[in-house]
Design brief:
This protein has about 110 residues and is mostly helical. The protein contains six helices and no strands. The longest helix has 17 residues.
């Protein structure tokens, strides 16, 4: 399913909708591990544009905070591509919140 959904998500327009679609896939795939969600987070990171829409920013912060909390090595690889110290601060704060968990899609 992920192989079929990801190509559709990456072409969604506008960028804010693309970020929403990618974040939804990110959360659904999260239990599969960092090898699966890392590339999705990378595509989410590619959604940034100037000026960045608030939904893109929010989804980027939430996804990378989940990586920081659960898969720190995957976060560190993405962190190198985030130059904005303000955004990095938000990611660290978000990762400390108890609500920084992916949705439970499958029980």
């Amino acid at each position: 399913m992920l192989a079929a959904a990801l190509p559709v998500a990456v072409i969604a327009t506008p960028q804010s909708s693309r970020a929403e679609a990618l974040f939804l896939l990110f959360q659904a795939a999260f239990p599969l591990g960092p090898e699966t969600v890392g590339p999705i987070a990378q595509k989410l990171l590619a959604c940034r544009e100037t000026p960045t829409h608030w939904r893109v920013r929010r989804n980027l912060v939430c996804a990378t905070a989940m990586l920081l909390r659960h898969y720190p090595p995957s976060f560190e690889r993405l962190r190198l591509q985030i130059a904005d110290e303000k955004v990095l601060g938000k990611i660290v704060r978000e990762a400390q919140r108890p609500s920084c968990e992916p949705r439970a899609f499958f029980w």
